[in-house]
Amino acid sequence: MTRRAPVDDIDESTLEVAAAKDHAAGVPAVLVSLQRAYAQMGAVRTLSTLTRLNQRHGFDCPGCAWPETPGHRKPAEFCENGAKAVAEEATLRTVTPEFFAQHSVDDLAGRTDYWLGQQGRITHPMVLRPGGSHYEPISWDAAFELIADELRTLPSPDDAVFYTSGRTSNEAAFLYQLLIRSYGTNNMPDCSNMCHESSGSALIDAIGIGKGSVSVPDLEQADLILVAGQNPGTNHPRMLSTLEKAKNNGAKIIAINPLPEAGLRRFKDPQKIHGVLGHGVDIADEFLQIRLGGDMALFQGLGRLLFEADDAAPGTVVDRAFVDRYCAGFDDYERHIRAVDLDEVLEATGLTEQQLRATAADLVASRGTVICWAMGLTQHTHAVATIAEAVNVLLVRGMIGKPGAGVCPVRGHSNVQGDRTMGIWEKMPEWFLAALDTEFGITSPRRHGYDTVDAIRAMRDGRASFFMAMGGNFVSATPDTAATEAALRNCAFTVQVSTKLNRSHVVHGRTALILPTLGRTDLDVQASGKQMVSVEDSMSMVHLSRGRLHPVSEHLRSEVAIVCGLARELFGPEHPVRWNAFEGNYDLIRDSIARVVPGCEDYNTRVRRPDGFQLPHPPRDAREFTTHTGKANFAVNPLEWVPTPPGRVILQTLRSHDQYNTTIYGLDDRYRGVSNGRKVIFLHPEDVVELGFADGDLVDLVSEWTAPDGTVEERRVHGFRIVPYSTPRGNAAAYYPETNPLVPLDHVAAKSNTPVSKAITVRLEKAGRA
Ligand SMILES: Nc1nc2c(c(=O)[nH]1)N[C@H]1C(S)=C(S)[C@@H](COP(=O)(O)OP(=O)(O)OC[C@H]3O[C@@H](n4cnc5c(=O)[nH]c(N)nc54)[C@H](O)[C@@H]3O)O[C@H]1N2
Ligand SMILES: Nc1nc2c(c(=O)[nH]1)N[C@H]1C(S)=C(S)[C@@H](COP(=O)(O)OP(=O)(O)OC[C@H]3O[C@@H](n4cnc5c(=O)[nH]c(N)nc54)[C@H](O)[C@@H]3O)O[C@H]1N2
Ligand SMILES: [Mo]
């Protein structure tokens, strides 16, 4: 195996479909990760990189936000998809000024995200001048000057939008929000708006903090774990080791998912001999093949059955002591939930009464229940209410703030949670802004800013004309591709701080900049020497990450250095923030973080402990609930679910096993049996026939949506291959980002404003073109 040149663009005509797998990981996982790593990095770099992944003196995996097990790091704490994430970043392929001279922006715009990402790491700052056809090199100083000039001429700071993706370190995120607030706006959309915003909204109302309440040991000690709307085999593979341990300790695991995901069925741990040679471990004891958007009904139905069980054996099911002491709103909840219509629950979920009753019995029997969830719950119109109902069920049983029990929203990007802790939020609370102002002698704006959807609307309508992104791929990740592309093209100025080429570089404002940055794996040397950064995982553990690899170009700058360089140019030498000192020594940033962010006291010392430290979480630590009632709140929500209109399907958009969000690693969704292509739609075999098609047919997908003003809108994508698959009747699945053009911008979750990516009403038509 040797380093290979990037492959050509996707040829969907070579797509193949085989049977889906019934297990995850195993030997193929190891082989695939090594193949991908060698292809990008060659042998030497592969070895030095993969052995430092998630080690105490190594770097945090840029894959997912699943925590390392404290004190138990294995010699190779990585998984197939972590290895792919690292290979993508540590690649030796480069995108140089010569590359940009050869490829016009029009040429690049004709390629897929896959091809763009395959080209390698960007090596130089580049600029596209108004009317230009090619990106050209530009010096860092000239780039900062251009941006600062533009920002100074805007009519108002609120005409600028600053996006953040979730790989940005705590130090860079803290300085980035400081720059943005010093400049004068809270327009800070982030990837979280499309991701776990619904979890945050629901949890802040329910328990006073938008983060999960469990740690890895809680999962290992739990009796019962519900995994709802999550595909850990692909997206959080290291979670399978934790689930395996929980099973060995006697836990029961229930998977709640429209699809029989391989990782939820059986796991062959590639780091254990029985995992390599044997049958592996059956992960889920029960599989509830729920209809898309049926989870709110499920949790309401379970709530009702809990009350019935308590009637049958009074005082044994409802945790009265917990409810009386710690909760508010119980009586209203009880009244509402006792009236839930079980027949409607069965229709909404597609489950049998027996499944519902068996799950309720499991909840009754369990002394420690954890509910885990991800995008299958958060990306629905009624996502916030759905999560609130899951919390209701836990509260009835007193399952928050004790070992082995609690809420576990499983985060996506490796530092998306940390970025929020550091202030990346368009509506950061007053106590944070006040502390920031005191620390730095600035006056932060108080008016809430734009989130992702509102930022797109503002750019579309000309209320914002400057867009800067700290990482991510805004154009491909956001909904309603046509609308978003038009919004960005409507901007005067766009800036992308990036490691790799992506669509957001070729859908741009009149002037466009690409600022190439160091990634997690890269060695970061500043005035005071080698620097480290810190990150927070899904369970509020904060720890250090040290890149070790020699950067592929001497022109790359760290995200911290880019923020400081821009700030110096924008604010001049008199500014109260010591941008120069921060750039030279990240310990000084951490000292400020310690004074501004509660729970980060003595940050520099505690983050250097071998496993870092855990941020406070009042419900977890002391059953304290800092909500408006001072208690944990039961929520009352009218039941919502997603019926399938006749002749249509409800489509969810999800990740294949071979991608990281908009970064396409390869074209094989091994677990679902798809190889060499991505444009497939998974449908129930009987729906295929009923809709008048056959296995293998090519179809266009047309989404239908009735806007609030009554207009019926249609959006279309072309040439998707029909794949019969195990899914509830009337429900379908296809990959993101290819299907983002189908998601209407205004189709969002109540309260969280998260695009509804998991329930799109779609009509199938014989393909117009491939
Ligand atoms: N390798 C890899 N790792 C990743 C990512 C990646 O792209 N690649 N992305 C990262 C990010 S940012 C995130 S947010 C996470 C995403 O992690 P996931 O949430 O696991 O990602 P999705 O692929 O969107 O999968 C959604 C899952 O929910 C199920 N689902 C869909 N709708 C419903 C529903 O209505 N009810 C229920 N019960 N289930 C439903 C789907 O069948 C699928 O199994 O992963 C992170 N880790
Ligand atoms: N239809 C549909 N849409 C969705 C979703 C869905 O399930 N369905 N999921 C949503 C979710 S959960 C999320 S989180 C968003 C993801 O949205 P984003 O976070 O915006 O997208 P990514 O694809 O993760 O961003 C990849 C790019 O980040 C850059 N990058 C990588 N590492 C670094 C780094 O260290 N520093 C910097 N500066 N740049 C870096 C690279 O240039 C790469 O091209 O998409 C959302 N969109
Ligand atoms: Mo995400």
Can you give me a brief rundown of this structure?
The chain has 770 residues and is α/β, with parallel strands linked by helices. It has four domains: 12-89, no CATH class; 96-195 and 415-610, 3-Layer(aba) Sandwich (Rossmann fold); 197-409, Dimethylsulfoxide Reductase, domain 2 (3-Layer(aba) Sandwich), CATH 3.40.228; 649-766, Beta Barrel (Barwin-like endoglucanases). 37% of the residues lie in helices and 17% in strands.
Explain this structure to me?
- With 770 residues, the protein is α/β, with parallel strands linked by helices.
- It has four domains: 12-89, no CATH class; 96-195 and 415-610, Rossmann fold (3-Layer(aba) Sandwich), CATH 3.40.50.740; 197-409, 3-Layer(aba) Sandwich (Dimethylsulfoxide Reductase, domain 2); 649-766, Barwin-like endoglucanases.
- The strands form ten sheets. Strands 6-5-18-17-16-7 form a six-stranded mixed beta sheet, with helices on both faces. A six-stranded mixed beta barrel has the order 25-32-29-31-30-33. Strands 12-9-8-14-15 form a five-stranded parallel beta sheet.
- Helix 14 (295-312) packs across helix 18.
- The chain starts with 15 loop residues before the first strand and ends with a strand.
- The model has no long low-confidence stretch (mean pLDDT 94).
- The structure holds ligand MGD (2 copies) and molybdenum atom (MO).
- One ligand MGD is lined by residues 63-64, 81, 195, 228-231, 234-236, 256-259, 261, 290, 292-293, 295, 374-376, 412-413, 652, 654-655, 659-661, 758.
